[in-house]
Amino acid sequence: MARKKIIAGNWKMNMTPTEAVALVNELKPLVANDEVDVVFCVPAIDIIPAMEAAKGSNIHIGAENMYFEEKGAFTGEISPNMLVDAGVKYVVIGHSERREYFAETDETVNKKVLKAFEHGITPIICCGESLTQREQGITIDWIRQQIKIAFLNVTADQAKTAVIAYEPIWAIGTGKVATTEQAEEVCAAIRACIGEIYDEATAEAIRIQYGGSVSASSAPELFAQANIDGGLVGGASLKPDFGKIVNYNK
Ligand SMILES: O=C[C@H](O)COP(=O)(O)O
């Protein structure tokens, strides 16, 4: 079964609402490619204006984070219901920046993943190793642990629709892309891990992205790998280059 590629931009903490509208309008014609799912994950305040600007295009607007409660005294957080009401279908969960600066753990990632599914939002679940972990040879063990906890109590039917983003932390924003072999090796290990937790059908269905300094020049080879189903793109998603990444196959 051929998996449809999914290429998502993660804008991180960039773009005011005014800038967001301008960027969506600029990129709209450049990212037209019906063969892939195109998602722009934007800051919460940009979701509604970006959604408006993206109307009539193939762009899905996603969120960069979400809390695991529906409502209440959680100052500053944004709930799954709020995202659903705004029309959001994808949410990035457990990005390494959230883990590093905002104390997210595998356990909170799991809670968020379960909540996203409960509300019909597709989670883009991030995992990835640090440089020290890679140098110590524990990358695969580490990633397997992240995946196993993230998917605790997630059903096979839910897991089939999930997206996993493998992002080696040392490759994020550094210009150091993992080699194609490194990226494919870990993405294959993630798929095998999903197969162990669930079954082969689930492993075959789940989509796994690579993220970390993806550029227009590295995208075609990365996305041609058997276990890489697209990318989670940071810096390059804010530029016209993102159009080239989305159209890597043209
Ligand atoms: O979520 C995206 C990643 O953190 C990659 O960011 P980058 O493409 O700027 O390295």
TrEMBL record:
HAMAP family in the cross-refs: TIM_B
Family from the record: Belongs to the triosephosphate isomerase family.
Residues that, per the record, bind substrate: 10-12, 173, 213, 234-235
Protein purpose: Involved in the gluconeogenesis. Catalyzes stereospecifically the conversion of dihydroxyacetone phosphate (DHAP) to D-glyceraldehyde-3-phosphate (G3P).
Cross-referenced Pfam families: TIM
One GO CC annotation: cytosol
NCBIfam families linked: tim
Gene Ontology BP annotations: gluconeogenesis; glyceraldehyde-3-phosphate biosynthetic process; glycerol catabolic process; glycolytic process
Major subcellular site: cytoplasm
Subunit structure: Homodimer.
InterPro entries according to UniProt: Aldolase_TIM, TIM_sf, TrioseP_Isoase_bac/euk, Triosephosphate_isomerase, Triosephosphate_isomerase_AS
Annotated keywords: Cytoplasm, Gluconeogenesis, Glycolysis, Isomerase
Transcription in keyword set: no
One GO MF term attached to the UniProt entry: triose-phosphate isomerase activity
Pathway: Carbohydrate biosynthesis; gluconeogenesis; Carbohydrate degradation; glycolysis; D-glyceraldehyde 3-phosphate from glycerone phosphate: step 1/1
Subcellular location: Cytoplasm
Protein name as annotated: Triosephosphate isomerase
Catalytic activity: D-glyceraldehyde 3-phosphate = dihydroxyacetone phosphate
Catalytic residue positions: 95, 167
EC number: 5.3.1.1
UniProt enzyme class: isomerase
